[in-house]
Specification:
This protein is α/β, with parallel strands linked by helices and 427 residues long. Helices cover 37% and strands 16% of the residues. It is built from 13 helices and 15 strands. The protein has helices at residues 3-12, 48-51, 60-72, 83-96, 109-124, 141-145, 180-195, 222-233, 287-290, 305-320, 323-342, 372-385, 410-424; strands at 27-31, 34-37, 42-45, 101-106, 128-132, 161-165, 203-206, 236-240, 267-270, 281-286, 348-353, 358-362, 387-388, 390-392, 399-402. The protein has a seven-stranded mixed sheet with strand order 4-10-9-8-7-5-6, with helices on both faces. The chain has a four-stranded mixed sheet with strand order 1-2-3-13. Strand 2 (34-37) and strand 3 form a beta hairpin. Helix 7 (180-195) runs parallel beside helix 8 (222-233). The longest helix is centred in the last third of the chain and has 20 residues, at 323-342. The model has no long low-confidence stretch (mean pLDDT 96).
């Protein structure tokens, strides 16, 4: 049934618009942690539209809020007061941990990071940005320019001068053999050395856990140690929480809190899960940074009444049902179950992650070489078995990305682990 649609897709959409699976599927509807395709096949969804359907498919509280708001007014723009936008901004400002916070809403994580870069460079009067190797921050011209993952960076042209720092990947690279404390010390020394060769850097932007890069992360405290260096130079810290926000990591509500010893970030970007599928992104920043722009601006679609209603309903559900706690409990169980399974499989190099954000890195057995062919094969086998997962990675796309909705049950975690084990054993 999907072949005619696939042919039409290829006829009118870009060749570089990625699709999963040799025979792509059309997802028609979902409920809870499950979705169905156009052929009637049911899947346990362990990827949630790239971590975007964060809470559950067809969550009644969100769908009701969207329908009710759409019945009143769908759009007005930021030129008019918007009660829902103010209310959601108040809640996010308070939750962010940033003092005297201001919030600006966008329609995506890419646009949120774009805005953060605009603010940081304007505030500091510099176009120099520090970014992490293996990072991903979006598909706009400026976001591509700071992305440290060549598979997602189609051009070397950029309005920014980007310098890449060690530290986003713990288990590979020149510092992989070091202990956690030695790793942090070496990365800080690398940062200090880098800053000795440049001047007036605007900001460091970093994902607490790298998403597209394969769910890699540094030891806790690295960015706190970086912050001490950055503060001495007046450099801002932007934390990209597009994939790590809203309690997904279980231990913390925001990924930066694992690195919070030196205080909160100067700017925080968010998107994906807050809308549970609706297009919401945004930036939180200290007032002096947010207000540094000296010209007018608006957002036509950012902060629309419908998306804000969805965000308010979804955030309320997340907090009232302690989904951060559920991510910690069920996610911890899932990761330990995956580690037990993968300990017997020579194709698996590492199972890593936090909360409901797990990565399984595949290699050629007996070597340390990435195995993107195996990752592609497992992705296919998992789908055939009724499980949807993602993939990513740095130099090669060899990491299985597992990020179910935060309402995942213990039974569903066990079911998903069993389905993934079956798929892994096919390679």
């Amino acid at each position: 049934m999907t072949r005619p649609l696939y042919d039409r897709h290829r006829a009118v959409l870009p060749d570089w618009l990625a699709l999963y699976y040799r025979q792509p599927i059309e997802i028609t509807h979902g409920e809870g942690r499950h979705v169905w395709d156009a052929d009637g096949n049911k899947y346990l969804d362990f990827f949630g539209g790239i971590l975007t359907t964060m809470t559950a498919h067809a969550l009644p509280e969100v769908t009701k809020a969207v329908a009710e708001q759409a019945g009143r007014i769908i759009h007005s723009s930021t030129l008019y007061l918007n009660r829902q936008m103010v209310e959601l901004a108040e809640r996010i400002a308070q939750l962010s941990g940033i003092p005297d916070a201001r919030v600006f809403f966008t329609t995506s994580g890419t646009e949120a990071n774009d805005t953060a870069l605009l603010l940081a460079t304007a505030y500091r009067g510099s176009n120099q940005i520090l970014a992490m190797r293996n990072s991903y921050h979006g598909r706009s011209f400026s976001a591509v320019g700071i992305t440290g993952n060549h598979a997602w960076s189609p051009t070397g042209l950029s309005p920014l001068q980007t310098l890449y720092v060690h530290g986003g990947v713990r288990a590979r690279g020149p510092y992989a053999h070091l202990s956690d404390s030695q790793f942090i010390e070496a990365c800080v020394a690398d940062l200090e050395d880098l800053l000795g060769h440049t001047r007036n850097v605007a900001a460091l932007i970093a994902e607490p856990i790298q998403g597209v890069g394969g769910f890699t992360s540094p030891p806790d405290g690295l960015y706190a140690a970086f912050r001490e260096v950055l503060d001495r130079h007046g450099i801002l810290w932007i934390t990209d929480e597009v994939q790590t926000g809203w309690g997904r990591t279980g231990d913390h509500f925001w990924g930066w809190q694992a690195h919070g010893r030196s205080g909160p970030p100067d700017l925080l970007t968010f998107a994906k899960g807050i809308g549970n599928g609706m297009s919401i992104g945004g930036v939180v920043a200290r007032a002096e940074i947010m207000n540094c722009l000296d010209s007018n601006s608006i957002s036509t679609f950012g902060g629309s009444p419908v998306t804000m209603a969805a965000g308010l309903a979804n955030l309320s559900y997340v907090l009232e049902h302690d989904l951060q706690g559920n991510a910690r409990r069920v996610g911890g169980l899932l990761i330990e179950r995956l580690r037990a399974i993968c300990a017997q499989l020579p194709v698996v190099r590492e199972v890593r992650g936090r909360g409901l954000m797990a990565g399984v890195e595949l290699v050629h057995p007996g070597t340390d070489r990435a195995n993107p062919e195996a990752a592609a094969a497992v992705l296919e086998a998992a789908r055939e078995g009724g499980l949807l997962i993602g993939k990513g990675g740095g130099h090669d796309t060899s990491v299985l990305r597992i990020a179910p909705p935060l309402t995942l049950t213990v039974a569903e975690a066990e079911e998903g682990a069993a389905l993934l084990e079956r798929a892994l054993r096919t390679v």
